[in-house]
């Protein structure tokens, strides 16, 4: 009986050491609650014009940013004019041909996210913006 208890104890210790060595975490740590996603729509939608060969084109873009950090939301609210200016400049520098396919839209989305992250990082010291979504996208 004593041998059975000793073997059981050794198996438990071995399992614990194995899990620590291979980076697996106990079930309680794996179930730790995630911080909620916080969405901030940048209203009103952006409306810019840009040149396309011989005509003027218009772009209307609805933008919402997502973070998990409430301080980032506050920083974005306080920096709204700076963020809006950066995005207006970015959107108005586009070409119709560059935005005509999904790859161009994704590239613009990534550039807009980086612009917002830079502004938030300048204010808070960390770029706590996880995503930027186009909630509407109209070209004319």
Automatic annotation (TrEMBL):
InterPro entries, A to Z: FliL
The keyword Glycoprotein is annotated on this UniProt entry: no
Membrane topology: Single-pass membrane protein
Chief localization: membrane
Pfam families given in the database record: FliL
Superkingdom of source: Bacteria
Keywords associated with the record: Cell inner membrane, Cell membrane, Cell projection, Chemotaxis, Cilium, Flagellar rotation, Flagellum, Membrane, Transmembrane, Transmembrane helix
Record's subcellular location: Cell inner membrane; Cell membrane
Function noted in UniProt: Controls the rotational direction of flagella during chemotaxis.
The family this protein is said to belong to: Belongs to the FliL family.
Name the UniProt record assigns to this protein: Flagellar protein FliL
Organism annotation: Dyella humi
């Amino acid at each position: 009986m004593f041998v059975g208890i000793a073997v059981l104890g050794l198996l438990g210790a071995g399992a614990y050491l194995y899990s620590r060595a291979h980076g697996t975490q106990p079930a309680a740590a794996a179930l730790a609650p995630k911080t909620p996603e916080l969405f901030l729509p940048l209203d009103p939608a952006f409306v810019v014009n840009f040149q396309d060969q011989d005509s003027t084109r218009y772009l209307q873009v609805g933008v919402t940013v997502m973070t998990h950090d409430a301080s980032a939301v506050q920083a974005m609210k306080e920096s709204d004019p700076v963020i809006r200016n950066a995005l207006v400049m970015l959107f108005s520098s586009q070409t119709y041909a560059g935005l005509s396919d999904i790859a161009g839209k994704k590239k613009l989305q990534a550039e807009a996210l980086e612009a917002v992250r830079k502004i938030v990082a300048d204010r808070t010291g960390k770029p706590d913006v996880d995503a930027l979504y186009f909630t509407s996208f109209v070209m004319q």
